[in-house]
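Lab meeting minutes (informal)
Scribe: AK
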Amino acid sequence: MRIEDQIDISKLDWEYIWQKNYQKDRKKGKDWNTVSKDFGKWLENDDYPDVLISSMRISPNDTVLDLGAAEGTISLKLAEKAKSVTALDRAEKMLEELDKKCMEQGITNVETVQMDIEDISLENTKKHDIILASRSFNGIYNIKERLELLNKLANKYVYITLFGSSTYEYRKEKAQIAGKEYTPGPDYIIAALILKSLGIEPNIVQLECEKLKEYHSLDEAVQRAVWKLGDIDEENKEKLIQYFKETFVKNERGNWVNPKDKTDWVLIWWKKQ
């Protein structure tokens, strides 16, 4: 007898499995406002935005809701292709940076909204043709209701990106060197199975990003590690610095990169159900 004949996977509680693997302190210690002025610089040579947008179906008449927009790395590129973009983020300073960029570049079709993704609802958020949650759904605990809501808010398509499996390998190694406990978060495939349990057939695309995460200095690499992992004592900070010195190399732009730290993102998208 095949295993499919023994277990009806549609009846399994996939959200429970997601929550069991969820890092409840994921947001702890991360104040996105404190990195608002540096965040765009950190991503200046990242090919993820172009790879992501090239995988999306966008027409010039579409309205887009960008959830977790930060300082607008994705929103500004979407604005070139869509009729309008609503950029939503909980960090006020991030949105101030986005508004500043729009003013400097003469972009008039981006509207910013300060709100947490977990606070949006049908009552306080307009429907859009396209809903995008880029790099912002790994920290969602009640993911099933959020996915249902995104489907209801969309007129045409929903796109979300989640960590690929290899992301956790390097993150765990770095955390252990810094003396921090690290538990990998939920696998992206669980989100896809939750969608199937909702009667939604998701498309899964491994985004082929080639560029490595860049650091302008080793001090910046340490600062970013502290921001992500929380306070690190001096002894473990020295271990982390030594690790960076042994593994980082300079690229053609003169910036530091870690060959192990390649972007690994998975795109899950579906047509409005």
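Next up, CB showed the second protein from the same session:
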Amino acid sequence: MRHNKKFNHLGRKKAHRDALLANMTIALIMRKRIFTTLAKAKALRVYAEPLINRSKEDSMANRRLVFSYLQNKEAVTELFREVAQKVAERNGGYTRILKTGNRLGDNAKMCFIELVDYNENMLKSASDAKKAGRTRRSRRKAAAPAAEAPAATEAPAAE
């Protein structure tokens, strides 16, 4: 019976699953965005977010604990230096899953999983949407008289 065994086993034994999730977490930390299946991305989120949360407090105990999961010095260093500074004020939800459709070969659901604070395009578009909401009409009105005013002042100066 499978009572109280709620996480996705991903069709692998425990050692293989742990190695897969550790390698995917290393890739996510180093590249900030990876392309994978939806099931693996959801399993990765459950695996990686507690490690990212640990990195917010830089202590030797936390570094050793994260290293015991990842077994990669470069990824641990990147996590505690770069990623921890970006997510310092965030209380959770360090990753974002963006669905991209189905894979051609086997019709598996595919997606991007990325670190939230590293997507420059979404950060820019969110700030642009806030700014461009009300000021669009006023810019047009301000631009039209401003274009006419210098032309009027330049004509008498040329004489």
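CB comment: The first strand starts at residue 33 and ends at 37.
No objections, moving on.
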